[in-house]
From TrEMBL:
PANTHER family: CARD DOMAIN-CONTAINING PROTEIN, MYOSIN HEAVY CHAIN, NON-MUSCLE. This is ATP-dependent exonuclease SbcCD, C subunit-like protein. Keywords: Coiled coil. It comes from the Bacteria. Gene3D superfamilies: P-loop containing nucleotide triphosphate hydrolases (3.40.50.300). It comes from Selenomonas bovis. The keyword Coiled coil applies. Residues 303-447, 625-655 form a coiled coil. InterPro entries: P-loop_NTPase (IPR027417).
Length: 1116
């Protein structure tokens, strides 16, 4: 059956207004007034201001949600002109007060109560529903009335059920609820839900349409009207909330990925720079180990060289010893033969010859002794640089010089011994200083402050004994440092605050324990400590000059003692840092860059015992890297000084040895008895004389000639043997001296090896061997060049160390900067990480964990949430929107099918067109959804960043809280806004379009109303559930038109009334006493309203249309 097919079958279908009752409502005062159309189309009429709209507003109050009610809407009344309070109190006029304000006049006070009641009947089902509302003021001070909602599934009346309220509303409510068909409610939602269900109204929106119908005269915009009145408000909040919930999880997962990647980007430079730092530090340490092991390495090579030389010298010694032994045997044989020859000569009477030969032998023995003495004399003289004397005078002169040389040598020996002792003392002092430096460097490397280790050890012992953490007893210098931008003043500020920085800060909670501990221990250092209050506010430096010393310091503000420290700094160190002496002289408290301090305008101090830029003496700061580097450089200088002192000791020992040799040589020369002891020339002449005489005697004896010849040969031979033996003995002595020296040098090398750690030497030896060619410029090791080679190698190592130190300083700064960049960006993760090279392993462990577990896990969770949750949820959300959009198309098609059944004009009907809107926001929203779905269908790119960017751009705006974004969200997710609507008047026969319009603009009043009635009819059909007029369906078939026909033509009025009649709707037409003849054919009942101008009360009369028409004609 067609939607607009007129129902011809009785009884009447649907719920219709049977009776409206009001008590104390507006100007209807003091009694129950009833409008009783009994389900028939009715006319509510009367003069302007008589109270018609008051009754209409009672119907609206019964049906429409309170938040949506606009009273007296047909008259375009102001929202404040009428209200629930004005109806309950019965306002009828306003009067001016003495204060010049307006005060309403009321028929009732706040002790009265009001009731409105409507009975709706459905003849088809034989059912009745009563809707009622009771209003009362809980007290005189109440601004608005309280309300009770009542729903009954039987007819009720005010007189029967609501006339005895009394003062106890709870008791009254219980009396009502004693009947199980009566239900009471405190608020509208449940009340509205229940009566809509009874009336077959599918949505609350239908009641908005009910209210709009009352005053509808034209349709300004078909699109807006269709959206507001013919289409349900889509409920997508649940799906949208689910999508945004999924997106919040996705966003958090993506933030974790981004944060992890940012951490990785910041930590990778730490790892890379750290690798270079470690390599350079390893190189530096390698060079240091090489330098430390160099003397031992050279000693080991020297031992090898000495072994070869000793082996050669030993072989030479053995050879010489063998040769001397052989020559001695040969000499003894020659001597025996000579004795035999001489014995033969003696037997031949050669006594004289024998005596001469004995004398010659004695002379030769004397000659040999003098030659040996002369050789010893010559050796000692050579030590002193003297020539061998040839005369007694020269001998005496040499003795005098030897005595002087011996005295000088003794003095030099004494000086050498003293110098040696001094340098050995210096060496021990330098070695002790180096040990202290190593200890200080080791202590600084284990922490981040610059406080000297002696103070740190004392503080650590104190903390350990008291069971405290060392950090609970900080030194002032650990909590402050010179700001980076004030580095030019660092030296001067360190000098100014040096003593205070070494002060121990003792929190109030530990003060008593610390005092007792100090009293019981000998500290061995001078220590100042302060009783410091914690949790004090930070000092305000704004009142001080920006050049004040304390303003150039950064304080570790997370320390609980930061407040005390800043207040102490502001009090004691407000010295102005002066760039000029003029400014210095003008200030009472001042400081120059050179470290001159002025206090109180009178006391001046300048302590230059240490260089102002000597970083080794600095004690403030959050990092000690630069101090450690300075101390390491000093340690390197001390190592070099040790090596220099060792070289100087070797020279002192050589000088001592030389002085001792010179002294011994001088003593030997001084001890020589006389020149004759070394004079070989006189003895040589005596020998020559004896030989000549012997030769003469032998020449006289032919018989003994042969013996004498043999004797001569033997003597010659013995002389040669003696010389050969002496020569080899001298060579052997030199060889033994060489062996002795080699042994001494070997012992020195072995001592050097013994002083050096074997493991350290084993590690350094391959490196020293590998770099020897570079260090020595291609030279090879030789014992004689050992010192030169050692110096060359040390110079090469020093150059490498300085170059490495420069590179290491650069990399240290880069590493610290990279760590600080990470710490600044991620303070929570870096809470326990110090931006210093010693903490590099912790940073790299963090990066390793991040790359191995953290980032992959974050990325997997992100991809899972993106692909499995968020995109799926968005697809579900989009599919739901598309489904709602399709439902809109289907509903418009259903309405059009019904509209086609009624003639709009002769041979023509109205059709509603539905097209996609061209609103940019909606189009962009749909394109964004399509893009997200398309991206989801593609293979994910890497970690899904492209898909996420598209999803995030859309979801972020859907979630935004600005008013603009909220308006945008309401617009784009409401699928009603995806369409624009228009009306087309079409020819019934051909379906061709006759006229197209999007609103009623440009048309006459009657045409506007005709279009409005038609669209309104379609809306009522949909919203009131009248698509099919089947007897088994529940529906509300009641509408009110208030003053709708004031400006319409009779033809338009008849069209509208006929249209509503065809819809089988009960109509309550509210109009002044106009157009009655036009309306009368469609009306069965009349409610006539009038007002007493004196009492300001309204009255209501129920009559039939026939009676009303007759009375009107009679009055004419």
């Amino acid at each position: 059956m067609d939607l607009f097919e007129e129902a011809a079958r009785p009884p009447q279908l649907g719920f219709r207004l049977a009776r409206l009752e009001v008590y104390n409502w507006g100007t209807f005062d003091g009694e129950v007034w009833s409008l009783a159309p009994e389900g028939a189309t009715s006319l509510l009429t009367g003069d302007v201001g008589s109270g018609k709209s008051t009754l209409v507003d009672a119907i609206i109050t019964l049906l429409v949600p309170p938040r949506r009610i606009t009273y007296n809407k047909a008259a375009d009344a102001s929202a404040k002109e009428r209200s629930l309070s004005s109806y309950v109190r019965g306002y009828y006029a306003h009067h001016s007060t003495a204060e010049g304000t307006s005060r309403p006049e009321a028929l009732r006070d706040k002790r009265e109560y009001s009731v409105i009641l409507g009975v709706f009947t459905d003849e088809n089902f034989g059912r009745s529903v009563t809707l009622a509302q009771v209003f009362w003021y809980k007290s005189e001070s109440a601004a608005t009335p309280s309300r009770l909602y009542v729903l009954a599934e039987k007819p009720l009346s005010i007189a029967e059920r609501f006339s005895r309220l009394g003062g106890d509303m709870r008791a009254f409510r219980k009396r009502l609820e004693a009947d199980d068909f009566i239900h009471t409610y405190d608020d509208y939602p449940l009340y509205g839900r229940d009566f809509r269900k009874l009336f077959g109204i599918r949505q609350e929106q239908a009641l908005d349409l009910f209210q709009q119908t009352i005053s509808l005269k034209k349709v300004d915009s078909l699109t807006e009207f269709v959206r507001a009145n013919m289409l349900e408000t889509p409920d997508v909040e649940g799906l949208l909330a689910g999508l945004l919930h999924q997106f919040r999880d996705l966003e958090a997962a993506h933030a974790s990925v981004v944060r992890a990647r940012e951490q990785q980007q910041l930590l990778v430079p730490v790892r890379e720079t750290g690798a270079r730092y470690r390599r350079l530090r390893s190189e530096r340490e390698t060079y240091e180990r090489m330098g430390e092991a160099l003397p031992a390495w050279l000693a080991r090579r020297d031992i090898a060289a000495l072994a070869a030389q000793a082996e050669a010298a030993e072989q030479q010694r053995q050879t010489l010893s063998g040769e001397i032994a052989a020559l001695a045997d040969e000499r003894r044989a020659a001597e025996r033969r000579l004795a035999a020859v001489r014995a033969g000569l003696a037997q031949q009477g050669g006594a004289r010859l024998a005596a001469l030969e004995g004398q010659l032998a004695a002379l030769e023995e004397k000659q040999e002794a003098r030659r040996a003495a002369a050789a010893r004399y010559e050796e000692s003289a050579a030590v002193l640089g003297l020539a061998v004397p040839e005369t007694a005078a020269a001998f005496a002169a040499n003795r005098a010089q030897a005595q002087a040389a011996a005295a000088a040598a003794e003095e030099e020996l004494e000086q050498a011994e003293e110098e040696l002792a001094d340098q050995q003392g210096n060496l021990k002092e330098v070695e002790a200083r180096l040990a202290r430096l190593d200890e200080e460097i080791a202590s600084l490397a284990a922490r981040k402050s610059s406080i000297p280790s002696a103070f740190v050890r004392l503080r650590d012992a104190l903390a350990e004994d008291l069971g405290l953490a060392a950090a609970e007893l900080p030194f002032a210098g650990e909590l402050m440092e010179v700001r980076a931008e004030e580095c030019a003043w660092e030296g001067a500020l360190e000098r100014l605050l040096h003593g205070f920085a070494l002060s121990l800060l003792v929190p109030e909670a530990h003060y008593g324990e610390v005092v007792g501990w100090m009293e019981q221990h000998r500290l061995a250092v001078r220590l100042v400590y302060y009783r410091a209050e914690d949790a004090l506010p930070l000092a305000d430096f704004s009142a001080l000059s920006e050049d004040a010393a304390c303003c150039k310091l950064a304080v570790r503000q997370e320390s609980p003692l930061a407040g005390w420290l800043t207040q102490e700094l502001a009090r004691r160190f407000r010295h102005t840092c002066c760039e000029s002496l003029r400014a210095f002289r003008a200030e009472d408290y001042a400081l120059t860059r050179a470290g001159q301090v002025k206090t109180g305008g009178r006391r001046h101090e300048k302590d230059d015992r240490r260089a102002i830029d000597d970083r080794r003496q600095y004690v403030m700061g959050f990092s000690n890297l630069r101090k450690v580097e300075a101390l390491r450089q000093e340690a390197a200088d001390q190592v070099q000084e040790c090596e220099d002192l060792k070289a100087l000791l070797r020279r002192c020992k050589a000088q001592r040895k030389k002085a001792r040799q010179c002294g011994e040589a001088g003593m030997r020369l001084s001890a020589a008895a006389a020149f004759t002891a070394i004079d070989t020339a006189n003895v040589a002449r005596d020998i020559q004389t004896a030989r000549a005489e012997i030769a003469a005697l032998r020449a006289e004896d032919d018989a003994g000639q042969k013996l004498r010849g043999e004797e001569q040969e033997l003597l010659t031979r013995l002389s040669g043997l003696r010389r050969a033996i002496e020569s080899r003995q001298r060579t052997l002595s030199r060889c033994l001296l060489v062996l002795e020296q080699l042994q001494a040098d070997r012992a020195a090398d072995q001592a050097e090896l013994a002083r050096t750690d074997a493991l350290a030497l084993a590690k350094a030896e391959p490196l020293l061997t590998a770099h020897a060619a570079d260090a020595w410029g291609g030279r090879t090791f030789a014992h004689e060049e050992r010192q030169s080679l050692q110096n060359s190698y040390q110079n090469w190592l020093g150059a490498r160390q300085r170059e490495t130190a420069r590179e290491l300083e650069t990399e240290t700064s880069r590493l610290a900067a990279a760590m600080e960049a990470f710490n600044r960006s991620f303070p929570a993760q870096a809470r326990d990480l110090l931006p210093r090279p010693e903490a590099q392993a912790e940073y790299e462990a963090l990066l390793e964990n991040l790359e191995r577990d953290g980032l992959p896990q974050y990325e997997r969770r992100f991809r899972a949430l993106l692909e499995e949750n968020t995109i799926n949820q968005m697809a579900l959300f989009y599919a739901n929107l598309k489904l709602r959009a399709q439902e809109i198309k289907e509903r418009i098609a259903s309405i059009n099918a019904s509209l086609k059944g009624i003639d709009y004009d002769a041979g023509r009907y109205i059709e509603i067109s539905c097209v996609h809107t061209h609103v940019r926001a909606v189009q962009d929203f749909r394109r964004a959804l399509d893009a997200c779905m398309a991206a989801a269908a593609d293979a994910p790119d890497g970690c899904g960043e492209q898909q996420y960017a598209q999803v995030a751009a859309l979801a972020s705006r859907l979630r935004a809280d600005t008013e603009e974004d909220k308006r945008w969200r309401r617009e784009v997710v409401d699928v009603r806004n995806w369409f624009d609507f228009a009306a087309a008047e079409c020819w019934r026969e051909t379906g061709e379009e006759y006229e197209h319009f999007t609103d009623s603009g440009g048309k006459s009043g009657g045409q506007k109303e005709k279009l409005a009635y038609t669209i309104l009819a379609a809306s009522i059909v949909y919203n009131f559930g009248l698509e099919g007029s089947h007897a088994g369906e529940q529906s509300l078939r009641f509408a009110v038109i208030d003053e709708a026909f004031l400006k319409s033509s009779d033809a338009s009025a008849r069209f509208g009334l006929k249209l509503f009649q065809q819809l089988d709707l009960q109509l309550l037409v509210v109009t002044p006493l106009l157009k009655i003849p036009t309306i009368a054919p469609f009306v069965q009942h009349v409610g006539f309203v009038w007002q007493d101008d004196v009492q300001h009360r309204s009255y209501l009369r129920n009559i039939s249309i026939e009676e009303f028409t007759a009375e009107q004609e009679g009055q004419r």
